[in-house]
Design brief:
With about 500 residues, the protein is mainly alpha-helical. The chain has 18 helices and four strands. The protein is globular, with a radius of gyration of 24 Å. About 50% of the residues are buried.
Length: about 500
């Protein structure tokens, strides 16, 4: 098999490329291996060749055989600050505006009868919004790595990997969505010392329908973005995760509000509807498991990828409990929650995806290698100074991502202020404290991401499957906690924009 690796600048191709050509077992020819020298400019190499037991009528090999032209500038030039910033900032803005609208939707639907009657829905919201980090962003990171390694260069490879991953996230979404609803019911029961069966059915059914539809739609969009990025020679690590998140919050919130309202109206007249929906999704799980198990691209994740998504869901649910408490106390906090959590999650997901891809290119799972020295092992626990001010590619990306925090949040919060038609005014104190909280959140996440991903790699845990769920859920918890502290601080200094809900009604 001929192996090749796509590079967007973090590493150059090795000086010697070994090409192995292996005949199919039934042709009687011996195996042979050829060694060639360094690649030259505009030289064509065969990216992937696999044996096939059948050929078409015209004698051509099937489409698993692909030829890819590697341009020398892709292998020789490193990404600059400008190229990273341009590729990341545009999807970042698109994703940010999606979160702005999600915040406006959340600010409106929190007063709907179903949300005021069944407060557990508010606890469920961060867990459902966090699924874009658990599933769609993890999917984006996984597919970006496969694309950068040249494993999605043919139609058959694309179809197999994309279909397998869509099936996998459908299975994960149903399980995690159901568990998230159960956790919300338990937390709500502890808070109110009472659990109503109709409300529990509504929570579970609403969660299942929301995560199933949202995961399928967003998974298709994510896969399309990665394929398109490869076609136009853009590093998918820079654009896929923000695009995956751009519609995630608004889609999930819209679906949750509509489905829960329909089920709420059916209580007392069609009490069978919610239980039937729950039963249908649970019975469908074995089918999705069987399909994902048959696909080599997703079999390992199906067996070992549950701990991150379930753990991340539990962490996000704690954030939901904080949100439920703060929404009842402060009127304006809900509209900013998707924005501060989404921005932090998007930026750390870009960093996590890039670091993971770089590690996959450098060495086998379990072996760490320094960025600029192949003979030296990378340091896992680095100081914050080295993380933000170092000379390596990851530190450079960290600085670019940190530079986007302040201008991005300023654009987003003033857009919220404009869209609310003067319902709220942003005081200088609020802007300062909010931006301080957002900066602390992103800086913490980027620093933790470097340590976590390198530690996972050393422990032979694929960060493409595990890092982003933990990072985004921790970002959700950190974001809502810092936002709650900011609102409480502003209330204590008598800032007029953060009065308790009771004083506004």
């Amino acid at each position: 098999m001929i192996t090749g690796k796509e590079n967007y600048g973090s590493q150059t191709m090795a000086s010697v490329n070994n090409i192995f050509i292996q005949d199919c077992p039934d042709n009687g020819n011996p195996q042979s291996a050829f060694d060639i020298g360094p690649l030259t400019k505009n030289e064509n190499i065969v990216n992937t060749v696999e044996c096939a037991t059948e050929t078409s009528d015209n004698g051509k090999l099937p489409d698993i055989v692909a030829e890819a032209t590697r341009n020398s500038h892709e292998d020789e030039n490193e990404e600059t600050y400008l190229s990273i910033a341009v590729q990341v900032f545009i999807p970042f803005l698109i994703a940010g505006f999606g979160m702005v609208f999600a915040g406006l939707v959340l600010d409106r639907i929190q007063h709907w009868p179903v949300f005021e009657e069944i407060t557990e829905l508010v606890i469920l919201i961060p867990a459902l919004l966090g699924l874009k980090g658990n599933l769609e962003m993890t999917l984006a990171s996984r597919l970006s790595t496969q694309a950068n390694l040249g494993h999605m260069d043919t139609a058959r490879q694309k179809f197999s990997i994309i279909v397998g991953n869509l099936t996998l996230i459908q299975c994960q979404a149903i399980v995690v969505g159901f568990l998230g609803a159960v956790v919300a019911v338990v937390m709500g029961g502890i808070k109110s010392s009472d659990v109503e069966l109709d409300h529990a059915y509504l929570l579970c059914a609403s969660s299942l329908v929301t995560v199933s539809i949202a995961s399928f739609v967003l998974g298709l969009i994510t896969a399309g973005v990665i394929v398109l990025s490869r076609y136009v020679h853009i590093n998918p690590d820079n654009v896929a995760t923000p695009i995956a998140a751009s519609l995630g919050d608004i889609t999930s919130l819209t679906l949750l509000s509509l489905v829960s309202t329909v089920l709420y109206d059916s209580i007392g007249t069609q009490d069978w509807l919610a239980p039937v929906i729950i039963a249908g999704y649970i019975l469908a799980i074995p089918m999705w498991v069987w399909i994902a198990k048959k696909n080599l691209a997703t079999r390992d994740v199906l067996y070992h990828g549950w701990t991150p998504v379930v753990g991340a869901m539990l962490i996000s649910s704690i954030g939901g409990l904080i949100l439920d408490f703060m929404v009842s106390r402060f009127e304006g906090i809900a509209v900013f929650q998707p924005v501060i959590n989404g921005v932090g999650g998007n930026l750390v997901a870009v960093q996590a995806s890039r670091i993971s891809t770089a590690l996959h290119k450098q060495a086998q799972l379990g072996f760490l290698q320094a960025e600029n020295n192949e003979d030296q092992e990378a340091v896992i626990f680095i100081s914050p100074v080295n993380s933000f001010c170092g000379k390596g590619a990851h530190s450079r990306t960290t600085r670019v991502l940190m530079a986007m925090v302040l201008p991005g949040h300023i654009i987003f919060i003033y857009t919220i202020d404009y869209m609310k038609d003067g319902d709220t005014s942003l005081s200088s104190w609020f802007v300062f404290v909010y931006l301080l909280a957002a900066t602390m959140q992103v800086a913490t996440l980027l620093y933790v991401a470097y340590i976590m991903i390198h530690w996972m790699w050393k422990k032979k845990i694929d960060p493409d499957n595990s890092a982003i769920p933990y990072l985004t859920s921790f970002g959700d918890l950190l974001g809502i906690s810092l936002l709650a502290i900011a609102f409480q601080f502003l209330y204590l200094i008598s800032d007029h924009d953060t009065r308790p809900t009771s004083s506004l009604r």
